[in-house]
């Protein structure tokens, strides 16, 4: 049976293509205003860049979808392992700040892919090509393997997103605990266990909202509603 396609899923599929076209035209390279707006919107509502703009994230996601179409079985990594693996991109981010990982970053599949998009491939080494193609191939069986576990760029947005004012909230009175949201989440976040999503791995893909069978149980909105409710005077 065909799934209902939501408007934001169409917009989310088109945004990275538009972003890549702007990169090719040279409009986006080192655009300070765009970078400022991205950081501001991350602070306000989460890691939009990762889920809505990043060309390498887009490539991994659509290879994953192609895999589903070809009925290639997906691997869901055990949650305990995910918790440890999630740390690696923050370690890489820390290393990159000390300059120790300069060589590693030069081999980064993200940088290589952006080079391909920007038609500037002179700095992509053989090892970088191998890494980039390996991660793209791995995307057939694991959701966004590079984004989730190795991307220092995503780690930066993820950390800033922890302060978000708007997020995905779950109405506990409507939730039937079917866990369809957990299964749909490419970052394997346990949405059904929390009243809202405040997780550095969230990329704002909204797949959890699309998967939820109970209308308006999951919503994107003001993150502090439940605290406001808790602190409001009790009705007698
Ligand atoms: S499915 Fe929901 S919680 Fe998971 S990354 Fe997407 S928006 Fe965030
Ligand atoms: S998909 Fe919706 S109803 Fe099911 S567990 Fe998640 S929030 Fe609750």
Question: If you had to describe this structure to a student in words, what would you say it looks like?
Answer:
By secondary structure, the protein is mainly alpha-helical. The protein folds into two domains: 7-161, no CATH class; 166-229, Alpha-Beta Plaits, CATH 3.30.70. Helix content is 56%, strand content 4%. The chain is built from 13 helices and two strands, in the order ααααααααααβααβα. A two-stranded antiparallel ribbon has the order 1-2. It is globular, with a radius of gyration of 19 Å. The termini are far apart. The model has no long low-confidence stretch (mean pLDDT 88). InterPro entries: 4Fe4S_Fe-S-bd (IPR017896), 4Fe4S_Fe_S_CS (IPR017900), NosR_regulator (IPR052378).
Write a concise keyword list for the protein shown above.
single chain, 236 residues, mainly alpha, Alpha-Beta Plaits, 2 domains, two-stranded antiparallel sheet, 13 helices, 2 strands, 4% strand, binds iron/sulfur cluster
Mean pLDDT over the residues: 88
Low-pLDDT regions: none
Distance between the termini: 49 Å
Number of strands: 2
- State the secondary-structure class: mainly alpha
Which strands sit side by side, in order, in the main sheet? 1-2
- Overall form: globular
Q: Total helix count?
A: 13
What is the H/E string?
HHHHHHHHHHEHHEH
Largest sheet: 2 strands, antiparallel
């Amino acid at each position: 049976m065909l799934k209902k396609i939501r408007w934001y899923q169409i917009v989310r599929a088109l945004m990275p293509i538009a972003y890549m076209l702007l990169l090719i035209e040279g409009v986006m390279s080192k655009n300070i205003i765009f970078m400022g707006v991205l950081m501001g919107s991350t602070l306000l509502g989460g890691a939009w860049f990762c889920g809505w703009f990043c060309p390498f994230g887009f490539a991994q996601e659509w290879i994953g979808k192609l895999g589903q179409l070809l009925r290639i079985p997906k691997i869901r990594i055990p949650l305990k392992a995910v918790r440890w693996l999630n740390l690696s991109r923050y370690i890489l981010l820390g290393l990159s700040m000390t300059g120790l990982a300069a060589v590693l970053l030069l081999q980064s599949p993200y940088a290589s892919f952006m080079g391909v998009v920007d038609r500037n491939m002179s700095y992509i080494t053989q090892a970088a090509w191998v890494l980039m193609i390996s991660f793209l191939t791995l995307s057939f069986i694991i959701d966004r393997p590079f984004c989730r576990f190795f991307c220092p760029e995503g780690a930066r947005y993820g950390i800033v997103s922890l302060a978000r004012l708007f997020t995905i909230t779950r109405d506990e009175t409507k939730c039937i605990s079917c866990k369809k949201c957990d299964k749909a989440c490419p970052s394997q976040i346990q949405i059904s266990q929390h009243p809202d999503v405040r997780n550095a791995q969230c990329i704002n893909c909204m797949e959890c909202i699309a998967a939820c069978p109970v209308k308006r149980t999951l919503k994107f909105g003001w993150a502090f509603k439940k605290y406001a409710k808790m602190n409001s005077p009790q009705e007698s």
